[in-house]
Specification:
With 343 residues, the chain is an alpha/beta fold. It is built from 14 helices and 5 strands. It has a domain of 211 residues: Rossmann fold (3-Layer(aba) Sandwich), CATH 3.40.50. A 5-stranded parallel β-sheet has the order 2-1-3-4-5. Helix 7 links the parallel strand 1 and strand 2. The longest helix has 22 residues. 27% of the residues are buried.
Length: 343
């Protein structure tokens, strides 16, 4: 018997089971697209997986665990996050690392770099090494390669880029607790570049020497001559300001520094002849930009320091000192390493 459908308005239609099944299939909603995990959830899951992998490796490799935990760069981080973690691991002494000067020069402020120099002096004073020698100066001293410094003594580099004699005077107290055998001083070119008068430069130098003698009566103070610049061939920044300072002026100031050394009874190392060409300018083979030194330039300086150390400083082989006469020209072929005649 066929079932009739009631299609009158206001009444529900009655359909067969087969029809209802067909209608239900047709009216079923389309399946929704699968949702993706948020990025943060994916990162979290991946991170947890890596963490579990790391824990499993460290658990099965105790020696690797000890090496990682004792690493001087990682140990402080672990101590901050988990102060009571892994008590069975032996503590290691912290290693103080000073940022390389090439990096520090660009990322540290002047005051921060001063703090670095101060802390280095403090560290050296605690060790009190034998035959301690201090390099006190500007960027020329700062960039001195440690491996080229004479190895018969200990070194403390207190060089600072752009330093003037007035600024150096303010940080001499950094050396108060040190016991240097020798203090090498080189400065002046930044004074001249900045327009400081000759009189102020020389006054600062004399004050610096007198202060060092007073605070370090057992130390030998050595004034090192200013070096010439490369003249028109310079490529250094502030080239025009340097060109306004003639090499002849630098030569004459070196003579006056030599006089100060003689009057204050300290030593004088005249490096100028070693670095000058026939025109009295900085030799092109010893510089990178007409002002700063190349590796070859530092080798020349290192050799001069070695010779000076063996002949002029305490325990010198020969007591004879070479004198810089008043009529010496800037292109002299040999350096004088002691007190010159008064110009």
């Amino acid at each position: 018997m066929t079932q009739q459908l009631n299609l009158k308005p206001g009444r529900k239609s009655i359909s067969s089971p087969k029809a209802r099944a067909t209608n239900s299939v047709k009216s079923a909603p389309a399946p929704k697209s699968r949702k993706r995990l948020p990025l943060w959830a994916s990162v979290l899951i991946a991170g947890n997986g890596l963490l579990l992998l790391g824990v499993s490796i460290l658990t099965t490799q105790p020696e690797l665990t000890k090496r990682i935990v004792n690493n001087p760069r990682i140990a402080p981080l672990i101590a901050k996050v988990w102060p009571n973690a892994m008590p069975s691991v032996e503590p290691v002494a912290p290693i103080v690392e000073v940022a390389p000067t090439e990096v520090a020069r660009t990322v540290l402020s002047y005051d921060q770099w001063l703090e670095v120099l101060k802390q280095e002096a403090v560290a050296v004073s605690a060790k009190n090494p034998e035959r301690l020698t201090v390099l006190l100066g500007d960027s020329l001293s700062l960039w001195f390669p440690p491996e080229q410094l004479p190895s018969d003594r200990s070194w403390l580099n207190q060089g600072m880029s752009g330093e003037t004699t007035a600024a150096m005077l303010k940080r001499l107290n950094f050396l108060d607790e040190t016991k240097p055998q020798t203090i090498l001083v080189m400065a002046g070119i930044n004074d001249l570049k900045s327009g400081v008068s000759d009189e102020d430069l020389l006054t600062n130098y004399r004050t610096m020497v007198q202060t060092l003698k007073q605070k370090h009566p057992d130390s030998e103070v050595v004034i090192q001559s200013m070096l010439p610049h490369g003249g028109e061939s310079m490529t250094v920044e502030e080239r025009d300001r340097l060109l306004a300072v003639s090499n002849e002026k630098i030569f004459k100031l070196n003579q006056k520094l030599a006089t100060i050394a003689k009057e204050e009874q300290v030593l004088f190392l005249n490096l100028n002849p070693l670095f000058s060409n026939n025109e009295g300018m900085l030799r092109s083979d010893l510089t990178t930009d007409g002002l700063h030194l190349s590796p070859a330039g530092y080798l020349v300086w290192s050799t001069a320091l070695q010779t000076f150390s063996q002949t002029q400083l305490r325990g010198a082989v020969s007591p004879q000192a070479e004198i810089l006469p008043s009529n010496t020209e800037p292109n002299a072929s040999k350096p004088a390493v002691a007190q010159p005649e008064t110009p």
